[in-house]
Structure to design on (549 residues):
């Protein structure tokens, strides 16, 4: 689709069309923008394409097919005959707006302009530079698929289609950015996703009026996300795994894919969506629940261990006698709050250095951080040993957070709590904690409360968050998403035990709905048996009366 609403109709004059397109596309000014003038069947024509996007083999095949056309084969109705019979390619369309031609050529397809015709043939014979799908670094699993999203949007949609072969799966292509014309795909399952959420997301994308979106999905997130732009907590979930994306699709979420980005957005997203990992579902339910609890513990420790240790160091009387050993015996020349803040900054600095360090030097960087910086800082008295210990524990909890964005937000929360303790000690800690909690309660993600199912409270959904439930009993979708189809399966898919008789009444639906189909069939058979028994009893009574007579 064209970004601008202005329409420039294609003319039957080939020279006029070529001049307009050449001027807009910058032919002869840009070395990679090519206009190839050809003649076939006595007609002049021109082909516009971007060098590097068009497939050479397909271009040669099309030129060869056009050169073999005779004039009498395309007269009359030249355009329709060329379009339907002689351009035998899969993805072909016709447009009559030159703005659409410009947008198409810049996106990669080939434009065929024919003299005497006021329509243009668009041949989608493009091939983007792309890498092979590989496992993303941030979402590695011990067992599971090793493919991941790449920077080409068509590859990403194919990875989703491979896992969700539902005819109701919709992938609507849109564009945003007056100059970048970035392709954005809104993906959802039509008879599951809430239509209001889908419409809200599409309307917000259509409302983007920026010149370009070079930062891809992050720019789109900040432009369409409702609420304060300075909120550090992520209100969309990013993933680079197709299996995670497919799982959320089936729950009723909406996906937003942006071309040139390997990360896709999952909307809406609550706080608890950011603390789950694919590894939990690649193990048995018991092991998955254990991994989830360990991860929860790591996230909680990453937020509270430093502020609480600092609070107890300032006010040791808050601790019971058995824990009075917590806290440094000697603070040193640098106040504890500055030690903690310097250590926090140092951890983030080393994290950034690790990102920009070549792989061959990462081991050397780790040795420098651990031996030269950490050990020497303790020896010279800059840090107390406990500061290094608890900062390291908090850093491990941050790295254990599945969502990178949530880990960074938790780091800011940790610093806020530290400063609050330094200013007002225990009242400051409690006050800051209440303010952050109130802020989270007021936060929403596309109409969904950020702390659901804790606030508002939903016992069944909270149980599913705290305990990795087995797949056979995952029979409902999250109610907060308001899906059109709330059930994933009619009833829990319980495994039959050999030799055990199944009940005749059927399982009840969790939300008080009717019996499942199996129960209905069994009840029907039972009623038929009872009716037959009554008929037999009536027959016996009639036969007995006849014998007496």
């Amino acid at each position: 689709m064209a970004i601008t609403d202005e329409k420039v109709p294609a003319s039957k004059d080939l020279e006029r069309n070529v001049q307009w397109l050449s001027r807009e596309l910058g032919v002869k000014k840009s070395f990679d923008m090519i206009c190839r003038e050809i003649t076939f069947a006595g007609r002049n024509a021109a082909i516009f394409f971007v060098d590097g996007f068009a497939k050479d083999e397909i271009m040669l095949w099309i030129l060869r097919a056009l050169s073999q056309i005779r004039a009498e084969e395309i007269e009359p109705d030249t355009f329709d005959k060329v379009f339907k019979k002689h351009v035998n390619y899969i993805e072909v369309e016709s447009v009559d707006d030159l703005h659409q031609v410009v947008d198409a050529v810049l996106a990669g397809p080939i434009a065929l302009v024919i003299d005497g015709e006021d329509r243009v043939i668009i041949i989608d014979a493009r091939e983007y530079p792309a890498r092979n799908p590989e496992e993303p670094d941030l979402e590695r699993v011990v067992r599971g698929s090793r493919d991941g999203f790449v920077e080409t949007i068509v590859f990403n949609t194919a990875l989703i289609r491979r896992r969700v072969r539902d005819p109701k799966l919709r992938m609507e292509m849109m564009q945003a950015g007056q100059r970048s014309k970035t392709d954005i795909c809104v993906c959802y399952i039509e008879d599951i996703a809430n239509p209001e959420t889908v419409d809200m997301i599409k309307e917000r994308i259509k409302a983007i009026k920026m010149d370009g979106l070079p930062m891809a999905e992050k720019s789109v997130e900040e432009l369409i996300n409702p609420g304060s732009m300075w909120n550090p907590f992520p209100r969309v979930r990013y993933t680079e795994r197709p299996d995670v994306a497919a799982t959320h699709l089936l729950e009723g979420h909406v996906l937003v894919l942006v071309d040139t980005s390997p990360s896709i957005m999952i909307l809406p997203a609550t706080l608890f969506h950011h603390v789950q990992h694919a590894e939990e579902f690649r193990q048995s339910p018991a092991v998955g629940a254990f991994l989830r609890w360990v991860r929860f513990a790591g996230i909680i420790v990453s937020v509270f261990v430093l502020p609480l240790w600092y609070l107890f160091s300032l006010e040791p009387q808050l601790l019971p006698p058995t824990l009075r050993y917590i806290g440094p015996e000697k603070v040193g020349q640098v106040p504890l709050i500055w030690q903690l803040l310097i250590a926090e900054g140092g951890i983030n600095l080393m994290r950034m250095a690790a990102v920009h360090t070549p792989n061959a030097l990462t081991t050397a960087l780790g040795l420098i951080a651990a031996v030269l910086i950490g050990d020497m800082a303790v020896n010279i008295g800059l840090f107390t040993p406990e500061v290094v210990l608890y900062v390291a524990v908090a850093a491990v909890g941050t790295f254990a957070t599945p969502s990178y964005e949530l880990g960074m937000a938790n780091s800011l929360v940790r610093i806020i709590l530290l400063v609050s303790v330094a200013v007002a000690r225990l009242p400051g800690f409690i006050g800051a904690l209440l303010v952050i909690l109130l802020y989270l309660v007021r936060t929403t993600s596309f109409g969904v409360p950020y702390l659901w199912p804790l606030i508002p409270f939903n016992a069944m959904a909270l149980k599913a968050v705290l305990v990795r439930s087995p797949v056979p009993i995952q029979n409902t979708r999250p109610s907060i998403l308001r899906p059109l189809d709330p059930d994933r399966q009619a009833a829990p898919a319980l495994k039959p035990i050999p030799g055990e008789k199944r009940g005749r009444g059927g399982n009840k639906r969790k939300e008080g709905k009717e019996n499942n189909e199996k129960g209905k069939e069994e009840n029907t058979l039972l009623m038929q048996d009872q009716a037959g028994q009554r008929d037999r009893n009536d027959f016996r009574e009639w036969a007995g009366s006849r014998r007496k007579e």
About this structure: The radius of gyration is 33 Å. The longest helix spans residues 404-442. The chain has a mean pLDDT of 85. DSSP finds 16 helices and twelve strands in the chain.
